[in-house]
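Narrative summary of target 7.
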Amino acid sequence: MIRLGVLVPFSNTILEPDLARLMPPGVSIHPARLGGYDLDAVPDSAQMAGLGAADLDEPLRLVAGVRPHMVLYGCTSATLAHGIAFDVELAAQVQDRIGVPSVTAAGSVVMALRTLGVRQIGFASPYVAELNDRAVAFLSDAGFATVSRADVGRTLGNDEQCALTPEEIMALGHQADSSAAEAIVLSCTDMRSVEALEPLEAALGKPVITSNQAMAYAVLSTLGLGSGAVGGRLLSRLSARTAPGADRR
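Modeled conformation, tokenized:
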């Protein structure tokens, strides 16, 4: 059994079910919750930067107890709020602490786009406008031009982000599309994008990258595993096979 350690914001209700959908048989998911932000406040740049800067000592100690084969940092906006250098350094620090490969959600999106070989993207998220600006700047620093973009159009709290329906997310993806966009990025680990992923790709005729799908790809490609039953064009690059039995104990 491959054990996947996941650092997840304490209010997030979407990431773990998504990973369960995306992983092939033989992969188990073991989360540790993260604090550092106000549950009742708008998840804006300041709140997400606070989450990104929060102390990881205790959640890393807890997730290390399962002896994971890889560790995910499961919040996109928490690191993109600080910039690409911070994101790379955080993943490196987790890897050094636990002694296994580690990726962030934001870093996984970058990996996914590079894997697909695209440079021009449409971007959408449930974030406030300022945080979307930071996301676009982050992706620009990584080498990707945002040629079209869609915002939700209203301010969403933590509970409201995860309450967006797949139909609403599909509509957001359509709004983010343009003829110049080679792929669509749906950013946020607490949004039901995976459920909209394959129908949206079929409708748009181009790849769609979501935060949780991108992390799944990072895990499966890094550990040499095959894809699960879903995952769109990105995960279809991996051959379907069951994860091998593995035991670090």
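The chain has twelve helices and eight strands.
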